[in-house]
Amino acid sequence: MKLSELGRTDTPVDYQKVRFDYERSPDQDAPRPVRHPVVVAGAGPVGMCLAIDLAQQNVPVVLLDNDDTLSVGSRAICFAKRTLEIFDRLGVGQRMMDKGVSWNIGKVFFDDELLYSFDLLPETGHERPAFINLQQYYCEGYLAERIAQLPLIDLRWKNRVVGVERHDDHVVVDIETPEGEYRLEADYLVGCDGSKSTVRQLIGQESKGRVFRDRFLIADIKMEMDRPAERWFWFDPPFHRNQSVLLHMQPDGVWRVDFQLGWDADPEVEKRPENIKPRIDALLGRDARYELEWASVYTFACLRMDKFRHGRVFFAGDSAHGVSPFGARGANSGIQDAENLAWKLAMVIHGQAGDALLDSYGAEREYAADENILNSTRATDFITPKSEISRLFRDAALCLARKHPFARSIVNSGRLSVPATLRDSPLNTPDSDPFEGRMVPGAPAADAPVRLPDGSDGWLLRQFATGRFAAMVYGDGNHEAELLAAAEQLSRAAEGLAPLEVLRIVAQGTRPCSGAIVDKDGLIAQRYDLKPGNVVLLRPDQHVCARWRRAGIEPVRVALRTALCAA
Question: CATH homologous superfamily for 3-101+131-207+304-373?
Fold first, then answer.
């Protein structure tokens, strides 16, 4: 199948069976290597998201994949709220939502008793849920269909990177195809080619960290089961003694079950259907009817590269860092890597920022990887205690959690993915005025319902344009002239520095203001701690980088220069 044909018929696509045609590129017949702004190795979710983000910011991308298929098996299934908001901006969010299973509730069991449940999104006023569950092949399929709509992305199947040669002003990439090898030149190369990254090996780098002595079996089973769309986690259940089990609902009547196996388990033996069936029967009962769709055995590991930037070569997703799967931190953090890198590459390529901005990618995403690894390591140590004392402590915490809420903070069945707050980012301007709440410089923006200038209802995050800074000026519709003057100041502050979108936001209950957005339920004011005259400056990746009770032209210019590493 040609990529352009994907999704063009009314017949449902079986994304696990699609094979894409290898197509010869004109670059293979060029007399010398053709130069491209960005080459991305690896067309998984991270590489695809990076390519789409760059293309939407008018940066041409060559996306290489050594295979001709999408993901087989469910693999990454839990996509967090922040990732869904990124998908919205990339043009695929609603498709993911329509197909995915939304959930906010998790439950923790010990033996056969429910200890407690928790709500990952207890407050209202957000467009997207805490998580959806969606098989990775759907995610990749929808991203591939979006890529087919974007002429600035050249996705080349069966193009394997076999050589990388680094220079001060470009990278030379050797590529192997069914018709032989050819070379490309790239201003920048990004390795999104997974935990066994070829690009990483070719430049002599490695991921370091901790491999845990335990294994888990993933089994995807298709059946009808009358259980809600919740995350259920068992410690030492009667159907799988001295081990742990996790259950998730997926679309199409498919359920993901994770069984802890122990370090001595033989992965090949455990994947055999005749060995999986007794475990499923013990969970569901011998009379249960189901079909085994896919199975895999994985080993826990928390690893990362020392540096995510090596000159003009960058790494994102599993090629840069890897975590144990509990907590849904792998794909979510990788997609957030891509978002962080895309706007910075675009700004530099378009001449709107210097090379120093690209160094901030490593500083920020290495910090985020360390945060994910810390959380993943703590969860793994709690789920799979490696000594009798550790097990006694864990089981005591579980017993206390039955009746005592304080003990529930000790229980760790996988702290679920949240985006990193980049408090120490070099792109932040420290507060000069006191503010309350979580929207500190470095925090990812919080959504809220709004009423748009045309009278329709919408969402705050939808109003931020791709590839542009955004300034929210909060005002009082009863003082429209002051609000307009403040917005004009913000626009003047950005002249000659960076593309800036100015959003005028009017407090609820005040007079409507032409062209302004209404803080429909007052949640923008609440979440950002805003009063009339206050300003919040957001980066193109929707992280807060500065805020003021009153903002003059010069402070805003300084903050923009700081956010571009040009100060």
Answer: FAD/NAD(P)-binding domain (3.50.50.60)
Dist. CA 139–CA 118, nearest whole Å: 27
Helix (H) or strand (E) holding 467: none
**Is 244:233 a contact under the CB 8 Å cutoff?**
yes
> What radius of gyration, in Å, describes the C-alpha atoms of the chain?
25
With 0-12 / 13-18 / 19 or more C-beta atoms within 10 angstroms meaning exposed / middle / buried, residue 314 is: buried
Which has the closest alpha carbon to 551: 473, 482, 470? Answer: 473
The answer to whether the CB of 194 falls within 8 A of the CB of 67 is no
Q: What angle do CA 328, 333, 339 make, to 5 degrees?
A: 145
Structure tokens at 504: 């005028």
**What is the spatial distance between Cα 130 and Cα 490, in angstroms, rounded to a whole number?**
33
Closest C-alpha to 60, from 43, 46, 39, 42: 39
Which tens digits make up the pLDDT trace of 439-476?
999 999 999 999 999 999 999 999 999 999 999 999 98
pLDDT at 7 over 80: no
pTM, two decimals, is 0.96
Which residue stretches of 402-501 are H helix?
405-408, 480-494
pLDDT digits (tens, 9 = 90+) for 102-111: 998 999 999 9
Spatial contact of 244 and 383, defined as CB atoms under 8 Å apart = yes
Element (H, E) at 359: helix 356-383
* Nearest-angstrom CA–CA distance, 251 and 18: 19
What ranges do the domains of the chain cover? 3-101+131-207+304-373, 449-563
The CATH topology of domain 449-563 is Glutaredoxin (3.40.30)
Distances (CA, A) of 419 to 98, 130, 273: 23, 12, 37
